[in-house]
Amino acid sequence: MKLIIAIINSDDAGTVTRSLTRNGFSSTRLATTGGFLMGKNTTILVGVDEEKVSAVIDIIKEHSHSRKQMISTASGVSRDFPIGMPVEVNVGGATIFVVDVEQFQRV
Hints:
CATH topology of the domain at 2-66 and 92-100: Alpha-Beta Plaits
CATH architecture of the domain at 2-66 and 92-100: 2-Layer Sandwich
Order of helices and strands: EHEEHEEE
Distance between the termini: 17 Å
Radius of gyration: 17 Å
Helix content: 10-25%
């Protein structure tokens, strides 16, 4: 058994979880906050047998989109630009971890 942990942009969370459900996968959504831009993210947890990992990852990839966002350097996130100058950064997409599950019990 594997646990898939996917950190995605909150804008994509509904689409990802609906697609997972349509394809027979149960998931848990957690509201999380990113460390760099302090933006809203969603962390999705999916427990599956090893042979289904790639199917879950394909669904997450299909529905998690990267986008560009303007941020102000007044927040101190970049030392390469003058303070207050807006900078375009890529956000979104997905960060996916797959970990072994030593034990699973449904109580």
